[in-house]
Amino acid sequence: MKVKVLRLGHRKKRDLRLTTHVCLTARALGANEAILSGEKDKSVMDSVKDVSKRWGGKFKISYEKNWKKTLKNYEVVHLTMYGEPVQNKINEIRKSKKDKLIVVGSEKVPKEIYNLADYNIAVTNQPHSEVAALSIFLHELFQGKELKNKFKNAEIKIKPKKQGKKVIRSGDTENIFKRIIKKFN
Ligand code: SAM
């Protein structure tokens, strides 16, 4: 099952950070691709591509002016505080193995999306953020398995530590030795 995230109505000046965070969250929590709609924004696309290249995996990002086109062939899940509670619908959504398009808005979403979506899903019926809604939805969809995802061909990795920071770069001598040892074992 493929999972893509559609960011509706991106505004270049106001949403730069938040749209980037939507995409990075989608990538980190197991989605395959982000599709941006609204204003075309090279800087968001470039920074997400840069993170994907350096931190590994196969996450893609693309732009589509006509967002309605992107809905075809997917089960569409629109995240909105007006929708049905995620906890009541997630089993049904997960059961169907159809590829999913998860839609998040920015300031205002076009009214049509409420009817075009297969599901309008709320992560609580309180107003908050697209990043929070997306995170919890993906966590529910993947049932926590997304936390163990591996990102192949990463140039940078973090070695988890109780204290301090340990970053491993693919060019690190330590890492090169480890790869050589692994190859000959
Ligand atoms: N007032 C806007 C509207 O009428 O759609 C909502 C703006 S909100 C800051 C941006 C996006 O965050 C929404 O389009 C929705 O995707 C997501 N969002 C915010 N609160 C949510 C909630 N409780 N459940 C699900 N998604 C939510």
Commentary on this structure:
- This protein has 185 residues and is of the alpha/beta class.
- The chain folds into 2 domains: 3-148, SPOUT methyltransferase, trefoil knot domain (Alpha/beta knot, 3-Layer(aba) Sandwich), CATH 3.40.1280.10; 155-185, no CATH class.
- 38% of the residues lie in helices and 24% in strands.
- It has helices at residues 12-28, 42-55, 86-95, 113-116, 130-142, 173-184, and strands at residues 3-10, 33-38, 60-63, 75-85, 100-104, 119-122, 156-158, 167-169.
- A 6-stranded parallel sheet has the order 3-2-1-5-4-6. A two-stranded antiparallel sheet has the order 7-8.
- The relative contact order is 0.18.
- Residues 79-81, 104-109, 122-124, 126-130, 133 line the site of S-adenosylmethionine.
**Largest beta-sheet details:** 6 strands, parallel
* Whole-number tally of structural domains: 2
At the first level of CATH, the class of the largest domain is: Alpha Beta
* β-sheet strand percentage: 15-25%
Spans of at least 5 consecutive residues whose pLDDT stays below 50 are none
Structural class by helix and strand composition: alpha/beta
Distance between the termini: 35 Å
Shape: globular
**Strand order, largest beta sheet:** 3-2-1-5-4-6
> How would you describe the oligomerization state of the chains in this entry?
single chain
Please, how many helices? 6
Mean pLDDT: 94
CATH structural fold name of the largest domain: Alpha/beta knot
> Helical amount among residues, as a percent range?
25-40%
Rounded to an integer in angstroms, the radius of gyration calculated over CA atoms is: 18 Å
